[in-house]
Amino acid sequence: MTTDDKPSATHDDAPASRPPELAQLKFPCRWFGSLMVAGGTPGTEQAARQVFADLGLLDSAVTPGHHSRTGRYETWKLNAMVPNLETLETLFRRLEALPGVRMLL
Q1: How many CA atoms does the CB half-sphere of 52 hold within 13 Å?
Q2: Strands 73-82 and 101-104, how do they pair?
Q3: 21 in a domain, yes or no?
Q4: What distance lies between CA 17 and its chain's CA centroid?
Q5: Is residue 11 assigned to a domain?
Q6: At 61, which CATH number?
Q7: What is the pLDDT of residue 23?
Q8: What is the pLDDT of residues 47-101, one digit of tens each?
Q9: What is the predicted pLDDT for the residue at 21?
Q10: CB 66 within 8 A of CB 34
């Protein structure tokens, strides 16, 4: 068998690479998370709200969480009603790409 004879990857291969926990979720579901951001990063709340709006997640919230004593980081509590796995994965990617984000939990 040559490399040309190998079957090509299909869209059906993508779910196998997902963590098993995601495959067990039932949608729609309420997602809760925390966004850890470098302290003093401007516009985090508005940017997170814009991500939710862009994805059509109108039943969502962004609220201040904790901040470190030294001001090196702050957290934002997030939640949204998510209709499907694809939207959830897009939400993760978009939130993780926001300026100053150190971690999405």
Answers
A1: 20
A2: unpaired
A3: no
A4: 17
A5: no
A6: 3.30.70.260
A7: 77
A8: 999 999 999 999 999 999 999 999 999 999 999 999 999 999 999 999 999 999 9
A9: 79
A10: no
Question: Would you give the DSSP letter of residue 43?
Answer: T
61 bridge partner residues: 79
User: Which residue segment(s) compose the domain that 64 sits in?
Assistant: 26-104
Token couple for 27: 């949608």
Residue 3 CB-half CA count within 13 A:
0
pLDDT digits (tens, 9 = 90+) for 11-28: 444 455 677 877 789 999
Mean of the per-residue pLDDT values for the chain?
87
> For the chain, what is the domain count?
1
Assign 16 to helix, strand or coil.
helix
**pTM for this entry:** 0.80
Q: Compute φ and ψ for 101, nearest 5 degrees.
A: -70, 130
Dihedral sign, Cα of residue 24, residue 105, residue 62, residue 91: negative
Whether 75 is covered by a domain: the verdict is yes
- Give, in degrees to the nearest 5, the angle at Cα 46 between 45 and 50: 120
Residue 87's pLDDT is what? 98
